[in-house]
Design brief:
The protein is α/β, with parallel strands linked by helices and 337 residues long. The protein has eleven helices and 15 strands. It has helices at 2-6, 16-20, 28-37, 87-97, 128-132, 148-157, 171-181, 196-209, 231-243, 305-317, 329-334, and strands spanning 13-14, 47-51, 57-61, 77-82, 102-108, 124-125, 138-141, 161-164, 188-190, 215-221, 264-266, 269-275, 281-289, 292-300, 325-327. Strand 4 (77-82), helix 4 (87-97) and strand 5 form a beta-alpha-beta unit. The chain is elongated.
Amino acid sequence: MLTRLSRRAYSSSVSVAECKNLGSAVTYRNIYIHALALKTTRLYSTKVTFKDSYNNSHSLNSVDQFESRDEGKTTPIRVVVAGVSGWTGSALAQGIANDPSLVLVAGVSRKHAGSLVPNTNVPIVATVKEALSLKPDVLVDYTQPSSVKQHIFESIESNVSVIVGTSGLNANDYDDIQQRVKNSSIGVIASGNFSLTASLLKQFSIMAAKYIDTYEVIDYASFDKVDAPSGTAIELAETLSTISKPRIGVEIEDMHGAKDARGTNVKGVQVHSIRLPSYIIACESLFGLPDERLTIRHDAGSSAAPYVAGTILAIKKVQEKRGQVVRGLNTLLFGDT
């Protein structure tokens, strides 16, 4: 029935009576999702109409396009965005919806479950597990540090590749994730910051650390950011520590006064976090030599737009990274360090 349903003429209408023939209770959301799941047919603006238990009429128009595999054309990548109502997630959802090589099949947000992603006919569900049941190719996570690792594990168990934009995980966490993904057919790409200039900050800092082994990292973020250091700063410090272990003038344990004033230690790198109003996201690496110093800094504005392009690039590349955990957009742009 599903195959016949999907092969109706373009802009066709399917009644709820026909949908009941699917053999199970359905909702308008499920009908729409099942239509999206059919990748073997060309589907343009398929319209699904039905009446709910209150006898209200509903209709949905799919704006997504699937090219026939028989014609040898690429099937769009099916994507779920967890944290779809958030600052970055909401902007990303619109970017995915506007990209013809991608299909947004669902968003995840407990608060907005049961509604649609704005400006689309894409449903919002309450949990990642529910979204994974729709058989996406890629899950993008922009949620919370407390839940992101569990979301990644759930995705790996469902054989779904993952893009991690949520901060709060460290090298040990990613070692755990690598152990779970290493023998799979999926990949994980994680970045503390998916913007181009943040990637250049990291890449240029890597270049500097090859020549200067006296450096520290400072990150700045909004007054109410719940995690510190930021994902950008942690990823930067962990990467730089693999290039050269920084020397320190006076060991922390030998210092007088409040030792915490020297910041926290991330893989041997001193990292300092500032949380004040007027900051959004900024990060800098500072390198010092006698009578000279170098500062490399990334500053973000108030829009989430810089993160959308980088995340979409990662979505398109992640299925090439089978069995791998790739950290940093710079790795996709410039290769391994």
